[in-house]
Design a protein that fits this description.
The chain has one domain. Helix content is 37%, strand content 23%. It is built from 6 helices and 10 strands, in the order E-H-H-E-E-E-E-H-H-E-E-E-E-E-H-H. 31% of the residues are buried.
Length: 211
């Protein structure tokens, strides 16, 4: 289990708490058109006092579906001790030793190359799944965007967790091309445990599809 050093950081420079173990797992975050239709129908059928809550539930999954289709990885959901990416990568914190597969961070060398790119903790963790398909591991991620009023469009930032390459201020099409290129050219160095956890997520997705 990966332990942090005494100054509360890891080799990649992430601001993590000392004495805390981070483990990795995968959540089911697939959003279908049927899911969104069902949630909208529940909103429409709800009594007046419950409509806003139903709307918020629909909006949560509608936004998640949009981010996934845009290929955007970030800390979208989670609890007090966990953070969940739009791709389903879930990082859980526990004090001291804990059962589970140790989470892996980008290397210190890669962190230095990406020093000028704003990243959240989930984006610094390795083991992400491809978006929107979830069918492979991804070393390259779209990690941010900014609205450009003069262009009337969003421009996106993408990184490679393996080589430290990045693309800043690109259209979504170009950012996705960066991701595909680096997923082909940059070999992942994930631990066997993370790979096994990912493979198990594929099995669970297939079982869910068959229900």
């Amino acid at each position: 289990m990966k332990q942090l050093d005494n100054n509360g950081t890891d080799p990649a420079g992430a601001n993590l708490m000392p004495g805390v173990t981070h483990t990795v797992s995968y959540a089911d975050v697939v959003v279908t058109a049927e899911d969104l239709k069902r949630l909208k129908a529940e909103q429409n059928a709800a009594p007046l006092q419950a409509k806003y809550g139903r709307y918020k539930a629909w909006l949560h999954y509608a936004n998640l579906d949009r981010w996934q289709r845009q290929g955007y990885h970030f800390h979208y959901s989670g609890g007090m001790n966990s953070e969940e990416c739009t791709c389903g990568l879930e990082i859980t914190q526990a004090a001291g030793d804990a059962d589970g597969i140790a989470a892996e961070l980008i290397s210190g060398d890669v962190a230095q190359l990406l020093d000028g790119v704003e990243l959240d903790e989930v984006q610094r963790m390795k083991g992400h799944r491809t978006l929107p398909g979830f069918k492979a591991l991804s070393v390259a991620l779209i990690v941010g965007f900014e609205w450009h009023e003069d262009l009337r469009k969003y421009l996106w930032n993408a990184i490679c967790q393996q080589c430290g390459g990045y693309e800043i201020g690109a259209t979504n099409v170009v950012a996705k091309r960066f991701v595909r290129t680096h997923n082909k050219s940059c070999s992942s160095t994930l631990s066997q445990g993370t790979i096994e956890a990912f493979n198990q997520s594929l099995v669970e997705d297939q079982e869910s599809d068959g229900e």
